[in-house]
């Protein structure tokens, strides 16, 4: 049953204006994010060309491999070129994905062969976490071309850049990513892919926290003053009803309305897209800070170092944006791993609900403290906007791990674009929500609200 308060809220113009605003902003954002499919295909094709050049350099002559292996490698690489050209002419994402998988397997195999038994192999242990799985995939795809390690070792100064151990991370993640796309018969899956599942990620990544801060403020700024000015609060509180019951119902009404404003349009758009793609990418791989779901471990952050050296601050693999680790490489953090897309969406939606709850509670706290509703709105907006601006992904340190504003973008948190873990964010947001609720109840009981 819908409560009377909720029905009153649903009849307000601002509620429907907010829903329309979310739909319009979402559609504009999706149109911008999803455009340029041809350009993205060209970028992927160029990446495959670059991979082939890397492979030619690593297997450039019989200095590194014996003559028979050299012939096999050249035949394989020429096959890649032919497959790439066919894929490019047909704009065949799936065929290009297969080429990229095999290329990255060969690259990973070469790097692993050179470094697995080196004197510093223990230092590289973190880079080679998935080596067993990758070597098994190499054998299954008949790509196990042995290098002449004695020759490579004698000319290590020439080959150090070609077989850098940190590159294995990039190669193994890419190989596993494209392998999953191939097995699931998925074509395009890049940072801008838009379908019935990825709409939630695009919305939360691009719209949080700015749009929620503004719309939640507009929806909740008169949550208490309206009842006070109309005399409803005086009548209700003259009945045998506790103030805590009244304020709890007001909070519940506002929270339900806010969730409807943000989640209902996304669900409608998702179901509409499902008519075309049938949730085909539900189990697609997405790279994330999986360990952060159950751990408080803080990741090393290279964003400040990248900015100082004018390096690129972000790289992409599928839907995941990441900063390279170490700074001079292009590899994701070796602590990452893949999870299924539907799991990622559920987890970020759960954190998004906590973020929205925090904003609702904070706005209502301001309305309790300040009798003037416009003053309450201005104060709450300023605090949330300034705090969100200060809470940048490059932040590190204990202080930022203990404030809720750090976790206002759930996609950045779970994908590992910040230093802090998902579990850390869930607990911090939950703790602050409880504190805000208790503070609201305490102040509401103390202040003369109804006069």
Label this structure with key terms.
451 residues; mainly alpha; 2 domains; two-stranded antiparallel ribbon; 20 helices; 4 strands; 65% helix; elongated
Instruction: Estimate the mean pLDDT confidence.
Output: 82
N-to-C order of helices and strands? HHHHHHHHHHHHHHEHEEEHHHHH
Low-pLDDT runs = none
- Which structural category fits the helices and strands? mainly alpha
Number of domains: 2
The neighbouring-strand order within the major sheet is: 1-4
How can the largest sheet be summarized? 2 strands, antiparallel
Estimated helix fraction: 55-70%
Radius of gyration, taken over Cα atoms and rounded to an integer in Å:
27 Å
Distance between the termini: 32 Å
* Proportion of strand residues: under 5%
The number of E-state strands comes to 4
Output the number of helix runs: 20
Q: Describe the global form.
A: elongated
What would your notes on this structure say?
With 451 residues, the protein is mainly alpha-helical. It folds into 2 domains: 4-34 and 195-446, no CATH class; 37-183, no CATH class. 65% of the residues lie in helices and 3% in strands. The protein is built from 20 helices and 4 strands. A two-stranded antiparallel sheet has the order 1-4. A two-stranded antiparallel sheet has the order 2-3. Strand 2 (315-317) and strand 3 (320-322) form a beta hairpin. Helix 2 (13-34) runs antiparallel to helix 11 (210-220) and helix 11 crosses helix 16 (341-369). The chain is elongated. The protein starts with a helix and ends in a 5-residue tail after the last helix. The model has no long low-confidence stretch (mean pLDDT 82). Pfam families: ABC2_membrane_2 (PF12679).
């Amino acid at each position: 049953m819908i409560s009377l308060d909720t029905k009153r809220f649903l009849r307000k113009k601002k509620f429907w204006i907010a829903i329309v605003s979310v739909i319009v902003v979402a559609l504009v954002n999706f149109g911008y994010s999803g455009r340029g499919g041809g350009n993205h295909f060209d970028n992927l094709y160029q990446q495959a060309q670059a991979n082939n050049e890397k492979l030619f350099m690593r297997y450039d002559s019989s200095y590194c491999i014996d003559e028979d292996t050299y012939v096999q490698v050249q035949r394989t690489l020429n096959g890649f070129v032919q497959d790439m050209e066919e894929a490019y002419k047909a704009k065949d994402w799936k065929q290009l994905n297969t080429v990229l998988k095999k290329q990255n397997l060969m690259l990973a195999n070469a790097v692993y062969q050179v470094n697995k038994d080196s004197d510093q192999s223990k230092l590289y242990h973190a880079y080679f976490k998935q080596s067993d799985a990758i070597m098994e995939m190499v054998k299954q795809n008949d790509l196990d071309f042995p290098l002449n390690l004695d020759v490579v070792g004698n000319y290590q100064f020439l080959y150090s850049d070609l077989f850098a151990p940190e590159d294995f991370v990039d190669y193994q993640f890419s190989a596993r990513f494209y392998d999953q796309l191939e097995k699931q018969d998925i074509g395009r899956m890049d940072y801008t892919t838009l379908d019935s599942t990825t709409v939630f990620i695009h919305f939360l990544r691009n719209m949080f926290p700015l749009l929620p801060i503004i719309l939640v403020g507009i929806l909740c700024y008169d949550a208490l003053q309206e009842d006070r000015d109309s005399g409803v609060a005086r009548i209700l509180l003259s009945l045998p009803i506790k103030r805590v019951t009244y304020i709890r119902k007001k909070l519940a009404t506002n929270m339900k309305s806010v969730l409807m404003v943000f989640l209902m349009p996304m669900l409608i758009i998702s179901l509409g897209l499902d008519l075309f793609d049938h949730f085909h990418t539900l189990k697609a791989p997405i790279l994330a800070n999986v360990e952060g779901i159950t751990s408080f471990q803080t990741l090393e952050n290279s964003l400040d170092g990248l900015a100082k050296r004018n390096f690129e601050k972000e790289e992409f693999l599928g839907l995941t944006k990441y900063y390279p680790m170490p700074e001079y490489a292009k590899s994701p953090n070796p602590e990452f791993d893949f999870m299924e897309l539907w799991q990622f969406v559920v987890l970020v939606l759960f954190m998004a609900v906590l973020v929205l709850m925090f904003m609702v509670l904070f706005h209502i706290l301001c309305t309790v403290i300040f009798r003037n509703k416009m003053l309450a709105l201005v104060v709450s907006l300023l605090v949330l906007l300034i705090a969100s601006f200060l809470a940048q992904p490059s932040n590190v340190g204990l202080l930022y791990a203990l404030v809720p504003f750090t976790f206002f973008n759930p996609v950045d948190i779970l994908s590992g674009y910040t230093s802090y873990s998902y579990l850390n964010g869930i607990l911090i947001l939950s703790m602050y929500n409880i504190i805000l609720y208790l503070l609201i109840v305490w102040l509401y009981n103390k202040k003369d609200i109804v006069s």
